[in-house]
């Protein structure tokens, strides 16, 4: 008999825990603050699905010794970054959850010095990217049973035809059919919408009073996580908006396909009662999509009155940065955004092309003369990156894609770099015009001479709920179905076989 594999994990409602079966380890945090001795139930399956065995895993208390052991058994720095940390803990000894799909809930956030990727070392950034990949691979083989209380519903913007769908979903979640008292949050614009008719929902179901609430953008961007689960109704743009709303910890996102494209929306809305009943009752399969963090760095005025050079300021002469080239002196941050698709720096409304400098870690890569440049995640390879001529890339690949937009050269080919690299794209001081940066198609920011955007792996991945048992095949099917990838009429077979002779191949006596 082969070694059993973990197929399903039941999360306790409180207490830090770790479960081991001799091969795999799942570490998590709970949403409740009440002390509990309830164990973690792990269902183990052999290759024969009919043969199962159960055991109660040990419950480790969240004390200092347990946290030290947790850090030793956790090879990646990601585990000390994903979860909400204690205000009194040091960054290198914080308790953590290796599953973003679990609670990732209460507690103070990390200090500002650790809140942004630009403050992390190269080793820590590498560990973030590696940890998200390994954790996502591990989560793909298990089902997480979540303790869901507050459900966040996001509907495609500017599409009133979906208001009725949102109303039906909210009514179902608020009903007593599930045996759970969910608190359902819908967008605040629906509170007075006659098509949604919130008063009729509460009149029909008196128990819904107080449980139908309305979310605002400020609620999503707070340091404390409020919501346990996200449901989107729309297309990929709606999923991107969910990522934009949750700039820090993202709850598990289950997306129903009600839009134009559906690379990230893999559930059929017509079957939502069955899908959600299974998700809340049997658990979900989660894929973690690595997100990037883009920080706009503004050039500070120079007091020396000399001519300035962006390359010298960021990497120094011959790649050897010194104190005068320290970007903490020459530049200051002016805003940070976490993105799921891409960061685009382009010429904006200017009629002339952009001049840009591209840096990787502490090396000057190249100078770009083009309409702009697109820095994309693997998830965003099918978006602007594709339109600009970049490569299609499976979302599980550990890369960052750099594609020039209409470069004024014959030799600028799209380039694929490791996602552990810190990229910086800036406007040189001698550029003719300013450039503009956008983050997932939002928040257009003007970049003046000397400004640049720093791009690095984010410590807050995007938790995407997948249909159980399906991972890679959904992406391949998607590019075939939606982009008609390699779609061509099949070549017809020969009616007469080829005949090989001493000379060239002939058919019907004629030279091929």
Main attributes?
512 residues; 20% helix; alpha+beta; 26 strands
Low-confidence stretches: 1-114, 321-326
Structural class: alpha+beta
Q: Overall mean pLDDT score?
A: 74
Characterize the largest beta sheet: strand count, sense, and whether it forms a barrel. Answer: 11 strands, antiparallel
Radius of gyration: 26 Å
What is the end-to-end distance? 58 Å
Large-scale geometry: globular
Quick recap:
With 512 residues, the chain is an alpha+beta fold. The chain is 20% helix and 29% strand.
Can you characterise this structure?
The chain has 512 residues and is an alpha+beta fold. A hairpin with a 2-residue loop joins strand 21 and strand 22. The radius of gyration is 26 Å and the shape is globular. Helix content is 20%, strand content 29%. The N terminus is likely disordered. The strands form 6 sheets. Strands 13, 14, 15, 16, 17, 18, 19, 20, 21, 22 and 23 form an 11-stranded antiparallel sheet that branches. The protein has a 5-stranded parallel sheet with strand order 9-8-7-10-11, with helices on both faces. 42% of the residues are buried. It contains 12 helices and 26 strands.
Element layout with pairings:
Layout: E1 5-10, E2 17-20, E3 25-28, E4 40-45, E5 52-57, H1 64-73, H2 79-82, H3 122-139, E6 143-145, E7 150-155, H4 163-174, E8 183-187, H5 198-204, E9 212-215, H6 217-220, E10 229-234, H7 236-245, E11 253-257, H8 272-282, E12 285-289, E13 292-299, H9 310-315, H10 327-330, E14 331-339, E15 342-346, E16 354-360, E17 363-376, H11 384-387, E18 399-407, E19 415-418, E20 423-426, E21 435-439, E22 442-447, E23 452-457, E24 462-466, H12 472-483, E25 506-507, E26 510-511
Parallel strand pairs: 1-6, 7-8, 7-10, 8-9, 10-11
Antiparallel strand pairs: 1-4, 2-3, 4-5, 12-24, 13-14, 13-23, 15-17, 15-21, 16-17, 16-20, 17-18, 18-19, 20-23, 21-22, 25-26
